[in-house]
Request: fold
Amino acid sequence: MKKKHQCSICSKETEKGLYLLQVFICESCEAEMIQTSTDDPKYDYFVKQMSKAHKSMIPS
Ligand SMILES: [Zn+2]
Reply:
């Protein structure tokens, strides 16, 4: 049985994806992020979701 990870952006569970700053991102979100330019409001959303997930993982 392969281990599944939950995507921090779309909450989808998948085996395919990567860890960015210890935050798991699925293949499709990764592809979307790459295609999104930094001045796109969607990019802000990705960054927010990622920092939220990152913060919840590391207690300060
Ligand atoms: Zn995703």
User: Anything to note?
Assistant: The longest strand covers residues 17-20. The chain has one domain: 5-57.
